[in-house]
Design brief:
It comes from Draconibacterium sediminis. Belongs to the class-II aminoacyl-tRNA synthetase family. Its main location: cytoplasm. Homodimer. This protein has three domains: 1-70 and 214-392, Bira Bifunctional Protein, Domain 2 (BirA Bifunctional Protein, domain 2); 86-194, 2-Layer Sandwich (Herpes Virus-1); 394-508, Anticodon-binding domain (Rossmann fold). The strands form seven sheets. It has a seven-stranded mixed sheet. It has a five-stranded mixed sheet with strand order 20-19-21-22-23, with helices on both faces. Strand 17 (388-392) and strand 18 form a beta hairpin. The longest helix is centred in the first third of the chain and has 27 residues, at 101-127. Helix 2 (38-57) crosses helix 13 and helix 5 packs antiparallel against helix 7 (141-162). Helices cover 40% and strands 25% of the residues. It is built from 18 helices and 23 strands. The protein is an alpha+beta fold and 511 residues long. The structure holds adenosine-5'-triphosphate. Adenosine-5'-triphosphate is lined by residues 217, 249, 251, 260-261, 264, 266, 331-334, 373-375, 377-378.
Length: 511
């Protein structure tokens, strides 16, 4: 099945099973804003717990914070967001659709890459075992021609971004013959800068009210609390502050479900280090974060690092962790070496000293910062994309979400075979015993087969069926979602069997 079709099905599945709803749907929706339903909120909470505990529990020198969304407006001036948090936008005059010029060009780069990969895949199939990919890439004329186009475009693109040359961005779009996917035309406007921050008014009277911003990243809340946390927590450098919270960006193009939203959630950690040691820490955090992703078991080949074409105004190194979504490799997380830019700016704008006295060096300095920043919603999409499966069975097909059990919203469904003979009561007893440890669901409607399918669709890893034998010998059938195998086990053993599979501790063991 084409990847776009899979993605469409996945979006429909998220709605049908209570994972994600369009915001304000009964009023025809609000662009790029989504609500999480009864299943979605559980999955989201589990993702957040995986991240939070991996940061705060597993690192003695990382502590948490929950700062407010509203902040003093000068913070955004100091951070550079008022002047430079822009995206280059371009409109197609025929379709009236708006695009990000940089994304149009990135898609063009991806097209060249795809062409090369197709040639390689074709040749690999033809030559079988004896295929030498490196040699093929270095000698095949079609691959070489596309590689040259990629190189030229990449260089031009990086230069244009670094020089903030909007006219050149437009020229690239024209020279590459990039068309609007809706109208198919090349009738483009000029490229303009567009600030992504939402603003609102704080205060009751028109004269007294001041303009404030909805934060476009959670990081600044951490920077402005650096001194508070360092002092009250008696933190010694190196140390980190982790935070999960909402962020808001007035995204120009927001057409990829929860991949790009106007209101979203971030999990960010700022790690404060000695100046000069930041690039070593940058490498360490790159490795740590990649391990965190891979531990979920979605396949190492589906992740890669992507170096930035243009470094943000505050960074001296930056890399993205990309995951292979149904629509290609895309950023899930950014890891940035932010230098001492933010703290120095806040020193300057607030007039307060933001320093660390390093007893080992016997001197004070503004710490350098390495940041890891991941979107909860993008992570959610990664988990759902990796887990969604349509399986051909002997007689029919089943849709199953093969979620890592530790993240699954419902861990266990308990089903009485029939609605009589004391079986529902027995099933309730099991739930009453296990509900303190696991999210359980009671299900007695429809045939067992239908109930299994329903649980497969929401990704429940274990189904337990209570039958007449259960009343006699206190055993039940446990059915495993992925293999569909069933076995008879003692009710008394259920907690242990399930507990082992859904344990965060086991997952953390892989980090
Ligand atoms: P992009 O290039 O995709 O716009 P970015 O590089 O601006 O993203 P960062 O500022 O590095 O993103 O933000 C860190 C993380 O926050 C991203 O890796 C992503 O997971 C998440 N994120 C950023 N913008 C959005 C958004 N509009 N919707 C959902 N998640 C987002």
């Amino acid at each position: 099945m084409a990847q776009e079709d899979i993605f469409k099905k996945l979006v429909a599945h998220c709605k049908e099973y209570g994972y994600v709803f369009q915001s304000s749907e009964i009023y025809d929706g609000l662009g790029a804003v989504y609500d999480y339903g009864q299943m979605g909120v559980e999955l989201k909470n589990n993702i957040k717990k995986y991240w939070w505990d991996s940061m705060v529990l597993l690192h003695e020198n990382v502590v948490g914070l929950d700062s407010a969304i509203f902040m003093h407006p000068t913070i955004w001036k100091a951070s550079g967001h008022v002047d430079a948090f822009n995206d280059p936008l371009i409109d197609n005059k025929d379709s009236k659709k708006r695009y990000r010029a940089d994304v149009l060009i990135e898609d063009q780069l991806a097209k060249y890459e795809e062409k090369m990969n197709k040639e390689v895949a074709k040749a690999a199939k033809r030559f079988g075992e004896s295929f030498d990919e490196k040699q093929f890439r270095e000698t095949n004329p079609r691959v070489l021609a596309n590689q040259e186009k990629w190189n030229n475009l990449h260089t031009r693109f990086s230069n244009a971004l670094n020089d903030n040359d909007l006219a050149e961005l437009k020229q690239i779009i024209e020279d590459e013959g990039i068309v609007c996917p809706i109208s198919g035309s090349r009738n483009w406007t000029d490229v303009r800068q567009f600030n992504l921050m939402f603003s609102t008014e704080m205060g009751s009277t028109a004269e007294g009210a001041s303009k404030i911003f909805l934060r476009p990243e959670t990081a600044q809340g951490i920077f402005v609390n650096y001194l508070n946390v360092q002092k009250t927590g008696r933190m010694k450098i190196p140390f980190g502050i982790a935070q999960i919270g909402k962020a808001f960006r007035n995204e120009i193009v927001a057409r990829q479900f929860i991949f790009r939203m106007r209101e979203f959630e971030q999990m960010e950690m700022q790690f404060f280090v000695r100046p000069g040691s930041e690039l070593d820490w940058f490498e360490k955090w790159k490795e740590t974060r990649m391990k965190w992703h891979r531990a979920l078991g979605f396949g190492d080949e589906n992740y890669r690092f992507h170096e930035h074409e243009k470094l943000a105004h505050y960074a001296n190194a930056a890399v993205d962790v990309e995951y292979k979504f149904p629509f290609g490799f895309k950023e899930v997380e950014g890891i940035h070496s932010r230098t001492d830019f933010d703290l120095s700016q806040h020193e300057q704008y607030s007039g307060k000293k933001i320093r660390y006295y390093d007893p080992e060096l016997g001197e004070s300095y503004v710490p350098f910062v390495v940041e890891t920043s991941i979107g909860v919603d993008r992570m959610f999409l990664q988990v759902i994309s990796a887990s969604y499966c349509e399986e051909q069975l002997e007689k029919d097909t089943r849709v199953v979400l093969k979620l890592p059990p530790v993240l699954a919203p419902v861990k266990l469904a308990v089903m009485p075979l029939v609605k009589k003979d004391g079986l529902p009561e027995k099933a309730r007893e099991i739930i009453d015993e296990l509900k303190f440890d696991f999210n359980c669901q009671y299900d007695e409607k429809d045939s067992i087969g239908k109930r299994y399918r329903r649980q497969d669709a929401i990704g429940t890893p274990f189904c337990v069926t209570v039958d007449h034998q259960s009343a006699e010998d206190n055993t039940v059938t446990i059915r495993y979602r992925d293999t569909m195998e069933q076995e008879r086990v003692a009710i008394a053993d259920l907690g242990k069997i399930i507990g082992e599979q859904v344990s965060y501790k086991k997952l953390f063991g892989k980090l």
